[in-house]
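To the team - 2-phosphoglycolic acid complex, inputs and output below.
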Amino acid sequence: MMRRPYLAANWKMHKTVAEAKAFVAEFLPLVDGVEDRDVVLCPSYLALRAVVQGTEGGAVRVAAQNMAAEPEGAFTGEVSAAMLLEAGVDAVILGHSERRALYAETDEELARKVPAALEAGLEPILCVGETEPEREADATEAVLLRQVSTGLSAVADERLAEVVVAYEPVWAIGTGITASADQAREAIEFIRAVVSGRSRDAAAEIRIIYGGSVKPENAAELLVEEGIDGALVGGASLDPEAFAKIVEAA
Ligand code: PGA
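Output:
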């Protein structure tokens, strides 16, 4: 089973519209002709439209960094799936550890957001991963089991493979400490086994990617690992050349 490599740039709260446009202008020529993998830019809500327009007609895709579970209503500050679709977005990061830690996002909310995204026609990128104390307490598998099984609980078996799961150990995000290739592979194998408990076919097809201090220097080592289907890149994705090198390494 060949899974198409998936490389996503999570810009977090970086880049104004002007900066996002400048990135796109510099980045597109660097990945020209790269068609055998998914390359996804995830700007802030306000820069989505500009990035969609800047990448129109090419292979580079655009994702949002969050989405409301509800279709519309009195939810001040929230953005719906329909609004994202209207902006031309086709994927969405859900449950990033920063949203879990800083904005109290729960697995139960994600259990609603993931199917809501799929039903609307957006590809969900569900983020999971243990904190350092959890790893030290040997709780990594328990945490991943809870996050993956709850996050995917309301997704029909036939649609599981449409989700992208990002394994992002919290201790590796923005710290410069990358999980070793073995640690990443083991966690991803475990996640695939959890999905296999629902559907063997979905487990063979679902893309499970790694995130946490991925840089051009360590990308190749992580991405050659059997089972690591790509990367969700924060810091290094802010630089067009660095992200293009990571795309190339996949
Ligand atoms: P980082 O962030 O690459 O800066 O560690 C990854 C992420 O949070 O998705």
